[in-house]
Every structure is written in structure tokens, then in C-alpha cells.
Amino acid sequence: MEKLIEIQNLRKTFDGVEVLKGVNLDLEKGKNVVLLGKSGIGKSVLIKCIVGLITADSGSIKVFGQEISHLDPEGLLALRKRVGFLFQGGAVYDSMTVRENLEFPIRRSLYTRNKEQIDAMVTRALENVGLLDAIDKMPSELSGGMRKRVGLARTLILHPEIILYDEPTTGLDPVTSGEISELILEIQKKYNTSSIIITHDLKCIRATANSISLLKDGIIVAEGTFDEFLKSQDKEIRSYFS
Q1: Which of 111, 173, 191, 227 is a good FRET partner for 157, with 20 to 30 A between their CA atoms?
Q2: Beta strands 3-14 and 58-63: pairing type?
Q3: Beta-bridge partners for 20
């Protein structure tokens, strides 16, 4: 199976505290990997290193076979167009309408300046997340779940091959959380995306994960399927599934 992301011996220190101590992690094409671990342990740091938002101290990150640390700014920008990133809060721009939020990455990437094509891309992205009716609303008019959907639509609009999800269901009610989880799965099937998903939501994990990687003490200490983790007798793993 083709590996789209290959991380080897990744290390990162902040203010003398080593957060990542030699992480090894792969993402295969068409797969969803859930990254599990306690809050503040470095999961978000890891996925931000993947797209160069944070620079690792040492180790290797290859995305689409390209070593991240060897890319110049232009090369890094080109790579980011192929990797979508859904931040915890959706990172929706409050001063822009939903339409303007989705137009922003298109115009910034210079993907197209044709109004008809931009309108078609925005419409299709909102249809994918069931929010076409909200196209001219302001973020302040949306619920938390709707804001997450807008963030996901904006992530999808440039058709990324990889999507990095940072706590996609945090702060949502159980029904909306389930809808977001199903949406992640639908996107994977429809577009054959490959994803790393940070979440503690067991229903989200069950619905979306092809495999799970557990981050503890700065390294990946366990890998397996949802069923394998569910049946594990390891105390650390059981603490997430009890």
C-alpha cells in the first residue's frame, strides 16, 4: 500500500520540555488513522509539523515522498494545497460570510479567478456538508456544528488528498458529533482521502478509524484496529475504552 505520510524518529522540544521524543507514524493511501493520547501530549504539535506550521527539531517527515524540511516556501505552499487541515474550532473567519470563507482559499491559491467556476466550487463544497442554505450567513448565525461543517467545506474546496482533523467533534452534542463522524467517513469514501484524526470520541473512532495509534510519553506506544484496542487488556489502552 502506498504511503502518503512517513514520519520517522520525529522530535520536538518547547522551552526545554521534549514533547515528541522519536515519533514513528505512517499514513497509507485511502486510510484514516486516529491519533489517540491525553490532552497536551503533543498530538496537535505532530500534525502541525506535517504541514510545516511547526518545525521539528530532528527526524524525518515525508509527505507524498517529499521531505518537508527540504522544501522551500514555494514548495511548502504547493504541498499544503494537497493537504487539508481542519482546526479544532473550524477556524472560520468571523468577518466573512460562509461564501466568502470558502472563496478565500481559492483566491489565495490562484486556483481560478473565474467567478462562475468559483461559485460552482463553493456550491459543491457546501452541498458535500449539507450547508448550501447557509451560503450567505455570517458565522455568528451558525451553531457550533454548522461552523465545523463550514470549516470542513473550506478544507475540501481545493480537493485535498490528505486531511488532518484536530478534534473534529469536540464541543458538539452527541447527535451533531455523530453527523460529523459520518461526514468524515462519507468524504473518505467519495474522494478516497487519507486522514489523520485527533479525537477522544469513541463513536467517532469507531465510525472513522481504519487504525489507531496511541501517543504516550512522546512516542507511539501502540497501534491497531478499533476492535483490537477494544479487546486489549493494556491498562493505558483500557483507560480510553472503559
Answers
A1: 173
A2: antiparallel
A3: 12
pLDDT tens, position by position, 123-172: 988 988 888 888 999 988 988 888 888 888 888 888 899 999 999 888 88
**Helix runs in the chain, H state only:** 43-50, 73-80, 98-109, 115-128, 144-156, 174-191, 202-208, 226-231, 235-241
Task: Tell me the whole-structure pTM to 2 decimals.
Answer: 0.90
Q: What is the rounded CA–CA span in Å between residue 80 and residue 118?
A: 19
Beta pairing class for 3-14 and 17-28: antiparallel
For 23, the grid coordinates are: 515519533
In this structure, what DSSP letter does residue 34 have? Answer: E
Cα→Cα distances 74→42, 55, 79, 109, 217, Å: 27, 16, 9, 11, 34
Beta partners for residue 162, in sequence order: 83, 194
205 close to 199: Cβ distance less than 8 angstroms: yes
Find where cell 514520519 sits: 7
Contact 221, 236 (CB under 8 A): yes
- Three-class DSSP category at 42: coil
21-53 pLDDT, tens per residue?
999 999 999 999 999 999 889 999 999 999 999
Query: What would the grid cell of residue 156 be?
Result: 475540501
